[in-house]
Structures are given as C-alpha cells and as structure tokens.
Design brief:
The chain is of the alpha+beta class. The protein is built from four helices and seven strands. The strands form two sheets. It has a four-stranded mixed beta sheet, covered by helices on one side. A hairpin with a 5-residue loop joins strand 4 and strand 5. Helix 2 packs parallel to helix 4. It starts with 9 loop residues before the first strand and ends with a helix.
C-alpha cells in the first residue's frame, strides 16, 4: 500500500496477506477508507478500499474469519451497491466451503431489491478451458460453478 492513489473511486484487492497489525499503517498510507478481511502475512486476505475524496456511505459490512470473503453494502450518489470481494481457495472442496460461507454471509445482509450487486475477486476456477486456460493441466471444477449459479440469482 505504499503508492498514493491519485484518482477517486473504489478498489478491491485479493491475496493482500494483511493482518490486524498492518491495518492502521495501510489506512494511514492510503488516506482513504479501507475494509479488511484479514488472512495471514503469508496468505489470503481481501480488501475493499475507497479513496480519500470518494463520497461513499458504508451501510453494512461482513467478512469471514479466513480472509476470503468481504461484503459491503454502500451508497454512492444515492445509488445502493453490494460489493462482494472473494478470494477463493484452489481445491474443489474448499471452494465449495467458501461459496457456502459466502451464501451464509449474504443472508446476513438485508434483502434489498434496490441494491446493485458487484461480485469481484479471484474465483480460482475457469469457466471455459479453451478461453480461460493456457498451459499447465487445467481442470473444470463443476461443483463450485454450480454453487455460484444460485448466488447469481439472489
């Protein structure tokens, strides 16, 4: 977080490797408002940030304890958004667990039809081997994809 941000807006980061001990320093350096779901200094962590002069109202925020999920309901220029930042695991079973946790965290937020969802992050799976993968031995993980589909409908 050592670089100053010259533009106004929202930024969402994954794999921040942030911990509670670095939070205040990052906030001071950024001069904006930062929301965290901490991982460890060696892995995970997600962040939703708002630059210093960006006019935003944070209505509600929830996160998991594993540094993989951060959800924030915000209002910008009288428009309501639900920002969802996810850093998914690499293995299929843990991906399923993360999506189940995401669903549980979404249920903690008020069901608001006027709120526009924005899902960002690193899902750590591919939708189409021909278009989304190059090299290695990519495999489609169908079960996590199926877990994502109902979330898109809510």
């Amino acid at each position: 977080m050592s670089e100053k941000l010259d533009h106004n807006g929202i930024f969402l980061l994954q794999e921040t490797h942030s911990t509670l001990s670095c939070e205040e320093n990052w906030k001071r350096e950024c001069e904006g408002n930062l929301l965290f779901s901490h991982g460890t200094s060696n892995s995970t962590g997600v962040l939703i940030g708002f630059t210093k002069n960006f006019d935003v109202t944070i209505d509600q925020t929830t996160s998991d304890k594993n540094g993989r999920i951060l959800i924030s309901d915000v209002t910008v220029n009288s428009v309501k958004y639900r920002l969802i930042n996810i850093y998914n695991d690499n293995t299929e079973q843990k991906q399923i667990n993360t999506f189940n946790s995401l669903k549980d965290h979404l249920l903690k937020h008020k069901n608001d039809d006027d709120r526009h969802p924005i899902l960002t992050g690193d899902l750590n799976f591919i939708f189409d081997i021909q278009r989304d993968a190059l090299g290695g031995s990519p495999t489609l993980k169908n079960v996590p994809l199926l877990r994502l589909c109902p979330l898109k409908m809510n």
